[in-house]
Amino acid sequence: MSEDSKQLISLRNISVDFKRDGKDIAAVDDVSLDVNKGDIYGIIGYSGAGKSTLVRVMNLLQRPSKGTVTIDNQELQGLNPQELRNARKSIGMIFQHFNLMKTRTVQGNVEYPLLSQKLSKNEREGKSLELLKLVGLEEYATSYPSQLSGGQKQRVAIARALANNPKVLISDEATSALDPKTTTSILELLKKLNVELGLTIVLITHEMQVIKGICHNVAVMEEGQIIERGKVAEVFTNPQETLTNDFVETSTNVKSAIERITADPSLSTLGDNQRLIYLNFIGNASKEGLISELSQKYQLNVNILFANIDQVDGENVGYTIAIITGEEASIERAISDLQTAGVRTRLLQAKQKGE
Amino acid sequence: MAALIPNVIAMKEQFISAIFETIYMTLFSAVIAGVLGLAVGILLVVTQPGGILEDRVSYSILDKIVNLLRSIPFIILLAVISPLTNFLVGTTVGTTASLVPLIFGIFPFYARQIQNALLDVDRGVVEAAESMGSSPAEIIWRIYLREGLSDIIRVSIVTIISLIGLTTMAGAIGSGGLGDVAISIGYARFENDITITATIVILIMVFIVQTFGDWLARRVERY
Q: Are A193 and A119 contained in the same domain?
């Protein structure tokens, strides 16, 4: 692939093998990945999928067995140790367990990366306070990490990671140890850094909420490989792989809703003039009153059993499970109208008794 | 006083110089073994598999040397090491001669203690420092030694107390000191008050070291 100036991170055919019981196990298996400047790129997978190993390759904390790592047109494996350390300064990283130094104050932690720069004490203090202000923790400058909550610790870690003015921030499960509310506030902070500083962010997670919340692009990893990737809105609304679908449906509660509804014995005796249907609206389709329009047009009775609207990368996505009652031909026409309008439909089969 | 410890009073000057001999042996060998043990302990941590300067050959050599030296009973080490002692200080008997076996007896122990103290430093913090482009020297100085400081103080105290114990055995090669007085005078001449007084003085030394060490460790633990 030609050198694209928009490209900040380029992994080519990366494999990482670990020896376990004398056998080589591929934690990452021939993965190529490009991240553009200004992007927020999410990598999702269950634990053991190799996503953590993959992001550690990006700053060579983990050296790959095969493949090349290029950051900002600089191939990292070709660098000597001193050059690699300099390159790492442009790649900030935050961690699940924050990894703050317990013997240093909040400000001391943020100043740590600045110690190896030729800065006066005043300049260091000024810069670290500025960063603490950016993450909203300036009044905690003299506290120690042990006095902070998890969310505050992660904010300190973010400020510390930004001290070297990195081009990219790698987030290794940074919200996985936090409660949902704190997770949201950390994600808001990351989004703000992306917008205000133009910071490129690569984050890994096992929670679709995180991807949905801030990512523009997503890659789904399983057994060391990327099995699906693309724009979040597209992957989210039209998952191709079972695992991806699993993540999507879990995060929208659709999965549990479908299970609950299809297991309901009272629905196992639907008549010929009834359909149990799952509708997935994308973008503008969810704004129009499609269902009520069609029910009037074709004289249908729509009984909504489940509905949920979600925001994915700024777009609305709606999920509805409903029973449609009416003439069979009318139902067919209504469904084809829905499909024309860009709604994905799937007929559900309620489980028979005793099944 | 004279009625309680008559034999100690009778050899007052020799007893007091024995106290200073013990202090001299402890301090001098503590400083040298301290530097040596700290260096070896750090090297063990950074060269071990997964360390910041992983080097299996260096690690395994150091590890074996430490194990070997720790396996030799100190009373025997005093004797086997005498050619080296002779080479380094020109004699194999006396207080200064005892420094060589004391250093070789205690530094491997200290190196292991340091290794364990530094292994308690959160590996994640070390990894964070690596991700920020810190050099190995910066990581040793600003992460390992700083984050591990209170543990380093604690293991140093344990080591100094062990070292005071070793100096008493060095009497076997005529080192002098409180151990020598307690055994070759107090015990050999059935002058029990000398043995007991020497023991009490040693206990007081240990108590002072322990109290000071605990205070210092707490002082650096402000977080």
A: yes
